[in-house]
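Progress against Task 2.4 (sequence-to-structure conversion) is shown through the following example record, which the project officer requested during the mid-term review.
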Amino acid sequence: MITTDQTISTFLDFFHERGHRRTPGGSLVPPPGDPVLFTTSGMHPLTPHLSVGRHPLGRRLTGLQRCLRTTDLDEVGDSTHLTVFEMLGSWSFDDYDCPQSVRWGHELLRDGFGIEPDRLHVTVFGGDDQVPPDHESWRVWDELGIPVEPTTHENWWSNGPTGLCGPDTEIFLWTGPEKPRGTPTSDDRWVEVWNHVMMRYLRHPDGSLEPLRRPCIDTGLGVERLVRILQGMPSVFEIDVFEPWTTGLTELWGPLDEPTSRVLSDHLRSGVVILGDEVMPSPNGRGHILRRLIRRMLTTLWREDPTRTLSDLPVDLVRHTLDHFRQLRDPHRVRTVLLHEEHKFRSLLRRGEQVLSHRRFTGPLDEDDYRYLHDTHGLPRGLVEFLRTGDDVVAVRDRDID
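Structure tokens generated for the chain above:
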């Protein structure tokens, strides 16, 4: 069975053999001046270079990038979504075109990873009132014998309401036990693993599109999603890099239901990676996201047994994740920060319980009550609702509980 590390090496070696130089990749923290709190995609560090169609390392690049997304927190715990994940990518800076990128993608999946062609399905941009259909990619996929589904909005990539944009073609793999059926938009057992973007336009504030003088190709492949399929696992939480977490947490805290096990594994592992990139918990910015993630994990951990504690967490689990993400931070230090955050959160909960035990707060609360609790006692609304209802999901997923 191919491992995650072998999957990464196979991808990078494939593109290296085809003239691609490796990018540094690395940290979740963007360079100074970047308005984004965390790196959210493999192409993000390359955005300035994609906009001008050239890069100091050359016209063909490949790389591995760790990413963090909080927009998908509601989905974390299903079979595909993670908070921190890795993306492999390949890029052409005004060099080869999308048909070449598509052919290489098909070759790597078929010959490099042994994916049967009948388990592949793709989508392509079907055109709109500004841009015609992506006939180039469509024609190549037809020649390769891969079924194509045209869409509009789903196959238009953009970097926001303005800026870089263009049509894309997305590769889906079948994950069902039976013979593939349906299409990517009609059956969610088709899982997207690889997106090939034709960076051809710059969208202006008035909505108009300006063709780029130096068009680029940007592809991004989700490592954990592909490995899940290559290893024949029902979800990304069963692949090799998660196995120490899912097994280790069960050994620590007894049998855990599947949603609990997945949230704990994801959030603990993500917290370790964020701390590994030198981000510390704080009331705002990157540290605020880390703190929310830790507290969401803790409320999940304590839901069935409030005596559970991160002091049980073995340092080897922390070290395993830091090693995988090539981070040099001391695992004992990372564990110490997690324990300190647990202590702070327990203290905040105890104080909140004492305040809310007052008879003034036994009935329904109005906006004046919430304002008083926040301004006078430092108890945010989400924390108050958690203490009153025990609804950890609402309290930590949707609301600020600092």
